[in-house]
Amino acid sequence: MYQARMMRKVELVVPETDVIAVTEALAASGAFHLATSEFMGDESVLNADGKWHTWVTTFASLERRIMAIIEALETDVGDPPELAHLIEPEVAQRDIEHLEQEIQTPLHELETAQRRLTQLERYLTQLEPLRDLDIDLGTLRKLRYTYAMLGMIPAANVERLRASLEHIPFALTTLRHDDHLAAVALFGLQRDAQILDRAARSAYLNPLTPPETYRGTPAAAITAMQAGIERTRQHIAEGKSALAHLQELHIRRVRHLLWRVRASRRLVETILQYGRLRYTYLISGWTPVSKVDLLKQQLGGASQNISIEVTAPKWETAPHSAEGAAESEEIPVVMENPPLIRAFQGLITTYGCPRYGELDPASIVALTFPLIFGIMFGDVGHGILLGLAGLFLAHQKRIRALRSFANMGVIVALCGLSATVFGFLYGSVFGFEDVLEPLLLRPLEDIMDILLLSVGMGVALLNVGMIYNMINNALAKHWGRVLFDRNGLAGIVFYWSLLGIAANMFIADFPISIVALEVTTFLSGAVVTFATLLERLLEGKRPLVEDWGTYLMEAFFELFETVIGLLSNTLSYVRMGAFAVAHGALSLVVFIIANIVSPGHSLSYWLVVILGNLFVIGFEGMIVGIQTLRLEYYEFFGKFFAGGGRRYHPLSLIPGQQRKP
Amino acid sequence: MSVIAYAQIQATTRALYSQMLSPGVWTTLIQAPDLDAVLGELSKTVYGAYLQLDRRLLTPRRIVYQGKRYLADRYTKLMRLAPEAAANLIRLLWRSYEVDNLKAILRGIETGATWEQILFLLSPIPAHAALALADLEMMVQSGAVIRAIERLKNTDYYDTLSHALERYQREQNLFPLEVALDLAYYRELWQCIQALPPRDRDYALRTVGVSLMADNLLWALRYRIYHKLSGEEIINYTLALNPRITDADIRAIAGGEQPGEVIARIFPEVASQVPGDLVAGTQGLRQLELILQRYVVKLCRGVFVGDPFQIGIPLAYLQLMEHEIRDLTTLIEAKASQLPPSVFTAQLELYVPFERQDSVGASRTLE
Fold first, then answer.
1. How far is B311 from chain A (nearest CA, A)?
2. How far is it, in rounded angstroms, from Cα B125 to Cα B71?
3. Which of A173, A440, B24, B176 could form a disulfide with B167 if both were Cys (CB 3.0 to 4.6 A apart)?
């Protein structure tokens, strides 16, 4: 829980004939994190990878075709399977062609019916303004001296059409105007028919030409069209039913095919990352120590001719050698925590992934984050509501979009719990401070006390950070840093000495004499100043210093920076107390406004109180969350967290699949 | 108010303007022996970061695409810094590439091209684009123009294209779809310029507006010379950009009046350069296009002098960058085809090399 799992480097030499089976076995084991091969092979061999490149492109294209089928069947891709095996591109292609043929006809018929419906509805819209006209549509089709055209035109084109016909006699009337289109009637002389046709066509005036079957007056044509629309809708319903039947028949097969094609593509993309010799592939990666035997077993089943080499990382034997340090950035890290603490892993990895060998700070953050939040947000009622909201987020499964927020729900629930506890300590319930007696203090009344308490908490947390730093350096066998670093033992002594001097100024009869404190400050400060030199002395590195002038100048400024840093980090925690006071003050404002709205405490008073409390929970909750994050990331993590690690992602051929380490 | 609104963007634009390719770089590029030498020179410029690809991938088409990515990033940068009305206009200016992408997609579908063949013909697609790459890919996968247009249902393009579809189905030709897209886009652009505050509108008209008028005029000429369309059709296929270009001017071109006389009325500044044989063949029209584009370049450079706190500076910079990309495209294609400089330098819009003796002048970028 406190440290990442031990890993082993696995290097494989795989004959060409077994590379697919081996890759499938690596993915099936769920225990292999693929690393970039240090040896990729020479160019002539790499260029022979043409087959794999072709397969990647082919699988990508096949995947798109299957997605088009899924879209036509109006369904989704379904849940990913646990495992999927390679499918030959030709086989997949045959299957897809067969499916495409089966759905093509009903799909085409449905599309035709839908277009026909759109067209009929458009005719109907165009004819509606003419409903009351007592004229036979057939007559309009056979005019001898007059040219007439009814139709729809983009509204923006009407004036251009008018301008283009200025040189001939014409009449252009807008019958109806929607957002984008206008129904117009264009009249002119038959002798100008060609000019009128050209102008109308170039202005995108689509003539209303209902089929000859629609005869009689506009009213009669409208009735016939409405019947036609009903029939078309029935055809569409039948078409959809046919497609739904096809969906039922083929959906499992289509989804299975899709996942196989996706897995095949991933498999081929994975193979392209391997190193390559003429007849063999070189695969390199990492696996947890506990899974080495399982991996060997899986690989043995996949290939008789595979060569497997498992080695411990150099970091374990020489952690602060150049090689070991460089390698520690490459070794993937398995963060393994119990469920409640696992929720905080996301907060850690947002900042950075712990490096291999570093302590996993998730467990300490799981304690400190809710604690800091609770101090700033102490209120029983607010805490309970927040806790309930967090529980809902953590456990709800119905709303798909919220499923990914489950971890945040756990964090919110714990913060709510902490806020409830501090609510009892502060004696505050939904901003009412006359309902409960505080078990500790009231922030609004004991401002200095809460601020001092916050600083005290900050000192404690900073020391925890420094201790973590010492442990990390001890794990890396960097004894010099454990002892002399500004966040090591010397740094802690220096910090406490400075605190002691400060306390001496304000506390009468402070038990430690000022002289003793000054001596420890001086000595520990000197050690911190010359930390680099002392580390090199302890570790036997020579020369101790390359340029004394530069070193002394840098050392002095680093000491100055250390002092400023300690001061600012410590004082930064004052914000915890400040926000606790602000929380109380905001609640007070809500009551002031409620009293202004309704001095007699009627329904509107309570409405304001409720809405005000919801606002405080939402708005201030968000701000306090951000401040807590800031204190964790900058003040706390700054003491010990190097990061730069790499998250463990076991190879999987199923996109989006997450395996448990 | 304009000082606050335009302070940062004008400073940023001037810095970007200073990074445009210098005459010295252009001379080196023109005299480069082959495409590899051109790439070597370009990698030392602001385009260098965009050309960090395997050499085998850098085909002429891909090099141009990468150059357009640089342009797309400049658009995005200036959009973020501009006040709201100006940002809308800049966003709309970029949309011309989106319209071109749509046209390329429709042509690709019509000719049965695959997505991989079409992909690098497209202009880059930044985050603010209305159509993402996946949308365009699904259009190609639909396999038919009608189905492809259905996929645009929730976009601004759907109404225009779905209405023009009827003509496409009658004529079995992409021309009505492409013209409909262009007209709708340029109409919106003109309206956006007209909706700007008066001072910004004035500067926008000086840069983007003139370019738009030049394009409108060239469309009218092309429709008359190449497509032999009637007057009514030419009017409907062009825009009324009053007061500079009126329907009377368009009708005059359509009606057979000497184009040179019409152009002299609209663009008196370049009247003397207009070739006499505009209607005789294709060369005259191309020459006119170059003259008008170089005129626009001159206007854009002029905007950098004078009041700095106005919309003209970012608009002018973006216009100049488009010319630079076009000139780079010409140069890259010429080098790939091993054409000598004497053949292609005459086609450059932004840079005029020393050897050319023409009315524009000696070796310099147009001022």
1. 27
2. 11
3. B176
Predicted confidence band of residue A575 (pLDDT cuts 50, 70, 90): very high
DSSP 3-state assignment of A282? strand
Token output for B113: 């091209």
| The 3-state secondary structure of A210-246, one letter per residue | CCCCCCCCHHHHHHHHHHHHHHHHHHHHHHHHHHHHH
Tokens of A128: 């509606």
Nearest to A195 among B147, B166, B232 (CB): B232
pLDDT of residue A129 exceeding 60: yes
Given the structure tokens 């004499």, which residue do they identify? Answer: A513
- A58's tokens: 């082919």
> Which distant-in-sequence residues (6+ apart) come within 8 Å of A82 by Cβ?
A654
Region class of A389: left (phi > 0), else alpha (psi between -120 and 50), else beta:
alpha
Q: Chain A within 8 Å of B116 (Cβ-Cβ)?
A: yes
The Cα B102–Cα B139 span in angstroms is: 9
User: Quick check: A247 pLDDT over 90?
Assistant: no
What is the token pair recorded at B130?
A: 């209305």
Rg (CA), chain A: 38
Query: Each residue of A139-197: pLDDT tens digit?
Result: 776 788 888 888 889 999 999 999 999 889 999 998 888 778 888 889 999 999 999 99
Contacts of A198 in chain B (CB under 8 A): 230, 232-233
The alpha carbon dihedral of A214, A217, A218, A221 has a sign of: negative
Here the contacts of A289-294 (C-beta below 8 Å, separation 24 or greater) are: A289/A5, A289/A6, A289/A7, A289/A8, A290/A5, A291/A29, A291/A31, A292/A8, A292/A10, A294/A29, A294/A31
Could you tell me the sign of the dihedral formed by the alpha carbons of B80, B85, B88, B92, in that order?
A: negative
Q: Are A448 and A567 in contact (CB under 8 A)?
A: no
Cα–Cα distance measured from residue A423 to residue A383, given in angstroms and rounded to the nearest whole number: 7
Residue A71 has pLDDT above 60, yes or no: yes
Alpha-carbon gap, residue A271 to A519, rounded angstroms: 64
Q: How far is CA A325 from CA A318, A540, B122, in A?
A: 8, 18, 45
Q: How confident is the model at residue B306 (pLDDT cuts 50, 70, 90)?
A: confident
- Asked if the C-beta of B80 comes within 8 angstroms of chain A's C-beta atoms, the answer is no
Q: Hey, is B310 helix, strand or coil?
A: coil
Range A315-335 burial, b when 16+ CB lie within 10 A, else e: bbeebbeeebbebbeebbbbb
Write phi, then psi, for B126 (nearest 5 degrees): -75, 175
- Looking at residue A107, its pLDDT comes to 86
Report cis status (omega within 30 of 0) of the bond before B23. no
Strand partners, A13: A282, A307
Q: How near does any CA of chain A get to the CA of B141, in Å?
A: 8
How far is residue A605 from each of residues A428, A433, A616, B6, measured CA to CA in Å?
Answer: 19, 17, 16, 48
What local confidence, expressed as pLDDT, does residue B363 receive? 35
Residue B277: pLDDT band (50, 70, 90) is low
3-class SS of residue A413: helix
pLDDT digits (tens, 9 = 90+) for A192-230: 999 999 999 999 998 877 666 777 888 888 888 899 999
On the CB side of B304, CA atoms within 13 Å amount to 19
SS3 state at A478: coil
Chain B residues inside the 8 Å CB shell of A202: 229, 232-233, 236-237
Over residues B177-206, the mean pLDDT reads 92
A-B CB pairs within 8 A amount to 65
| Predicted complex ipTM | 0.87
Listed residue (B197, B188, B123, B181) closest to B149, CA to CA? B181
